[in-house]
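Slack export, channel: ligand-projects

TW: morning all. Re-posting the request from yesterday since it got buried. We need the structure predicted with the small molecule present, not the apo form. The ligand is fe (ii) ion; the SMILES is in the block with the sequence. No rush, but it would help planning for next week.
GE: picking it up
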Amino acid sequence: MTKLALMPHTLTVSPGEYLVTSDLSATLETYLGSCVGVALYDDRAGVGGLLHILLPEAGDEQARAAPAKYARSGIPLLIQEMEAASGKKDRFKGWIAGGAEMLPNRPNIANLDIGPRNVRAACQIMEAQGIPILGQEVGGNLGRRLCLRMDRGVAEFASSANMRRHVKKEATAPSRPDKRDLIKSIKGLPSFSHMATRLFGRIEDETVAFAELKEEIYKDQSLTANILKLCNSAYFGLPHQVTTLSHALILLGMNNLKKIILTALIKPVYSQNANIYFLKKGDLFRHALGCALTMEMLARLKGYVNPEEAFVAGLLHDVGKVILGECALEQFERIMRKIIEEGKDAARAEEEVFGYNHARVGAWVAEAWRLPPLLKDVILCHHQPSEATVDPMMVSLVHVADAICNMLGLGCGTGLANQIAPGAMSFIHLQVKEVEDTISALPEIIKKVEDMF
Ligand SMILES: [Fe+2]
Ligand SMILES: [Fe+2]
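GE: finished. pasting the full token output, ligand included:
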């Protein structure tokens, strides 16, 4: 958290954090799913602040540890910090955005209406504090971006619904790529070496010849450097600097080392020019990593036998989007229109435009990379977990982990319309409280991991 930032550019507020600044050349932004963003501005003092809350409230201990995560503690904290930067509460004006619903029209799991509960709590607190809300864009089922323009003292909202001006109608529909075009594009992905394929296939297999892997890794200097950087990151909190892969293996164990190697190998794949759904460069990887970490947490929570395998499933679930972003970008205007104008979810809209969706394309990637049947099943069914055939528990876990990342606005841009499928929560015996605890715990974990790259 930063009190006063003097950087002349866009500053992004992460989930569960806030930023206060008097730098008039800055723009503060945050991305929201079911989370709520609160922007405050004081014209006279030229002070503005932006807060990204995850949940309405928490117990005393949790709220004391990370007050900005919760509406009840976060909004008073934002006000206090704005006043410390010479703002005056009676001059503050406010805006709120976010609070998307993940389970619309499913009253049987009504307590998972985290989005609407966040909105209600934020509005109540703003009213109790006497701060007028000049604008709000809340609810629905789309992700949003809220940004505070310090030079103009106003907040702006962006969701796919109000980005329709960017979604122009083409005179004739562009030809859609067929499977052969896509397979060609899969072959053109950054070298995803046979080493990764072997690791994906044998994540649970301790007999992978480490010496042989080490040889291969050392041939690629930037991969070696990335792997060692990941090993030395705050996430693992090792007491000593790791300088060799053998040392890393001793300190972290084979399963952790495999996860690190796979993460380093998949990053360039997700860093392709995948400008779909108004995503920024890096968003696909951020989402994949967020989902991998959420998977690991949920898998441990639910006693799933192999949390490392769960991590890999989360990491790979959206790999099909890379290919669609590569060779079908111009079609996304039509997909966005279906999402905006017809209220379709993203996977269904893709299906109607292409005849297949990113999950199906991801399964073709899985075949090309010779991934094991479990991972192909996860990739193919992550939006329809009831169709899973190999490991329905794992697929439902990925489906829910994906939704939790969307709720936090993690690498989802502003255009995704995904909800939790009926039955997925009960299939993995996941309680609403457990979802809330996972949401609360994720920002620190993701931050530690993001610092690695
Ligand atoms: Fe997906
Ligand atoms: Fe996803």
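GE: first-pass observations. Residues 296 and 307 are 5 Å apart (CA to CA). The first strand starts at residue 10 and ends at 12.
TW: perfect, thank you
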